[in-house]
Design a protein that fits this description.
Elements lengths: L2 H15 L6 H21 L6 E2 L20 H11 L4 E2 L16 H13 L10 H18 L6 E5 L2 H13 L10 E5 L5 H9 L7 E3 L10 H13 L3 E8 L11 H11 L2 E5 L10 H6 L8 E4 L1 H4 L7 E5 L2 H8 L31 H11 L2 H22 L4 E3 L7 E6 L6 H15 L5 E5 L2 E7 L7 H19 L1
Parallel strand pairs: 4-5, 4-6, 6-7, 7-8
Antiparallel strand pairs: 1-2, 3-9, 8-9, 10-11, 11-13, 12-13
Helix pairs in contact: 4-13, 5-13, 6-7, 6-12, 8-9, 14-16, 15-16
Length: 482
């Protein structure tokens, strides 16, 4: 084929391909429609249900697969409103007090917008030096907050599951593969599911897992841990990994981090701390007291999309010996030969499985710089007090019992009916609360008993929402017992 024929084909394709790059007027029109939709959503948010159960929720959107012909932004936003932003849980609502709520800070969305438009490559220092320096600065700030040494290293991940995997892979590489089936893992029955998934993905499926006994408040018991370690070593096994929780998803309790650090040091265990939920309470005086010893972890997981109120998709892993995180993850390729591996700044892709990655640091950096730390501290402290308020009120209602005083921002409680099964009653109670939809609470089980949870962590959750939740729990309880 001649060069002239190729050029004719290119001239034919260019105008159609150019539709992917709209000019200023069209960009402004598209942006205006999207911003208007977002503003309508945010303005209506206080009056929207926190949870809406509908028949076959979301059905219909799958029928709108991509087609050859374009559609208007107005029509597409209507599809999103109808099929995506209506049914199910509304995590942006201050009434979301189930699970561990996500956030959704508006400036974080602006950071994501800028990161997507500019499309800076944040994986390698060579490609995006400013983006990498920005993220590394955030990692250094988190290290200082936790009390980690200067040579610790870390990176921002997609969430706590990816961060747990990165930490466990770093711990695994300290072992010989012939010892995988002898390397003992120590957890409790409150450890997060993502820890066990990470063990499987990391190739540690055969590793013995010990569920260490807990105290009356479901915190790991150090004395029981020591006894289990000694039994395992006497049996010819290799005690390897200790997983502590700094704020469990179930009940919000914090394992005795300082005491467990002493055990890990004495018995030469890798000490992994899952602080995805609780870690950023280090910004508060109470949090620093409860989380004392967190900086002694060999690997520490935190989620900015929890304690710093960002939208879903931002976790963090910090490893005390940064070289171990690097050795477990870095790679090289011929097509990356232009990348300067001797650069003074570490590249995020050398500390996680991701090479191509979203510049997620901008969604974190922009709100922190725009607002300053003071409102983040205040919001976190407010959530602690909201959990205490709920605990005090529900404990005074006849028939309710609580599972300990809130250490962080989770209040765990249940109703004991005069007749019948408490578990059956509390299952019906949480279903009635969720069907109401004005707030969203969740349930869990502790030692086979069903408990209800109120978790205050959304930045829009204030006393009015928690009071609404309390009143709804009491109302539905009265309806079910009448």
């Amino acid at each position: 084929m001649s060069v002239e024929m190729i050029e004719d084909k290119l001239r034919e394709l260019a105008p159609v391909a150019g539709l992917l790059d709209p000019q200023a007027a069209e960009r402004q029109a598209l942006t205006a429609e999207v911003i208007a939709y977002a503003e309508r959503f945010l303005e209506a948010l206080p009056d929207l249900p926190t949870y809406r159960d509908m028949p076959d929720p979301g059905a219909g959107i799958e029928e709108h697969a991509p087609t050859e012909e374009p559609e208007s932004i107005a029509a597409l936003l209507k599809l999103i409103e109808t099929h995506v932003d209506t049914a199910g849980l509304n995590p942006a609502s201050g009434g979301h007090m189930g699970y561990i709520p996500g956030g959704g800070l508006y400036p974080g969305a602006l950071g994501d917008y800028l990161a997507a438009v500019t499309n800076r490559f944040s994986g390698l220092f060579f490609a995006g030096p400013g983006a990498v320096r920005l993220e590394n600065g955030l990692i250094d700030w988190i290290k200082e907050l936790l009390g980690c040494p200067l040579d610790a290293a870390g990176t921002l991940t997609s969430g706590g599951s990816a961060a747990n995997l990165a930490g466990i892979v770093a711990a695994r590489d300290a072992l010989s593969s012939k010892d995988f089936d002898r390397a003992v893992v120590y957890v409790t029955n409150q450890s997060h599911e993502s820890v066990f998934r990470a063990l499987r993905v990391a190739g540690m499926r055969e590793a013995p897992v010990r569920h260490v006994a807990v105290d009356e408040y479901v915190r790991m018991d150090p004395a029981s841990l020591v006894r289990q370690i000694e039994q395992d070593r006497a049996a010819g096994l290799q005690p390897w990994l200790l997983v502590a929780s700094a704020g469990t998803t179930n009940t919000g309790v914090v394992d005795p981090l300082e005491a467990l650090a002493d055990v890990a040091a004495e018995h030469k265990l890798w000490y992994h701390i899952d602080a995805a939920y609780g870690g950023f309470f280090m910004l508060c005086d109470h949090g620093r007291e409860v989380l004392r010893g967190i900086g002694r972890g060999d690997s520490i997981v935190l989620d900015p999309h929890k304690g710093l109120f960002l939208s879903y998709g931002c976790g963090c892993i910090i490893v005390r010996d940064g070289r171990k995180l690097y050795d477990a993850h870095h790679g090289a390729a011929e097509y990356l030969r232009d990348f300067d591996s001797t650069a003074a700044q570490r590249s995020p892709s050398d500390y996680s499985i991701e090479l191509s990655r979203h510049f997620r640091g901008l969604r974190l950096w922009l709100p922190l710089k725009l607002f300053g730390l003071k409102p983040f501290r205040a919001a976190l402290e407010e959530k602690l007090w909201l959990a205490r308020w709920f605990h005090e009120r529900i404990a005074q209602v006849d028939g309710f019992e609580c599972l300990g005083y809130p250490e962080l921002s989770v209040a765990t409680y249940r109703f004991i009916p005069r007749h019948g099964s408490p578990n059956d009653f509390n299952r019906r109670l949480i279903k009635a609360i969720q069907q109401d939809g004005s707030v969203f609470l969740s349930s869990t089980t502790v030692d086979g008993e069903v408990y209800l949870r109120m978790c205050a962590l959304c930045f829009r959750t204030h006393l009015d929402y928690v009071r609404r939740a309390f009143n709804l729990v009491v109302k539905k309880t009265q309806e079910l017992t009448s």
